[in-house]
Amino acid sequence: MARIAGVDLPKSKRMDIALTYIYGIGQATALEILNKSGVDWNKSSDDLTADEANTIRVEIEQNYKVEGDLRRDITANIKRLMDIGCYRGLRHRKGLPCRGQKTHTNARTRKGPRRSVVGRKKKK
Description:
Elements (H helix, E strand, L loop, with lengths): L2 E2 L2 E2 L6 H4 L8 H11 L12 H14 L3 H18 L2 H8 L13 H4 L13
Helix pairs in contact: 2-3, 4-5
């Protein structure tokens, strides 16, 4: 089992799928990394040699921001938006969607479960 960027890659998965378990690497980026490092994307993560794992590790460390660094940057960007008090920052602060979605009926993921109002009757 290979360990890349602090993440244990899953066993018996193709390399293009296994790399997507690293935060910040999607399908397209995984294929790009494998092409640059010269590793076959159809190869299983179990069959990866130490040299191949090392070339992938070096490629990711040099050219991509993943895992802790990426999470830290995203958190810092959101904090900066909240500090300057822009519209997106206010929406983050209130826990509401900040990309223009309507909130009258939807947005339950951001708003959380419905809070029932005591004494309010439903309209017929």
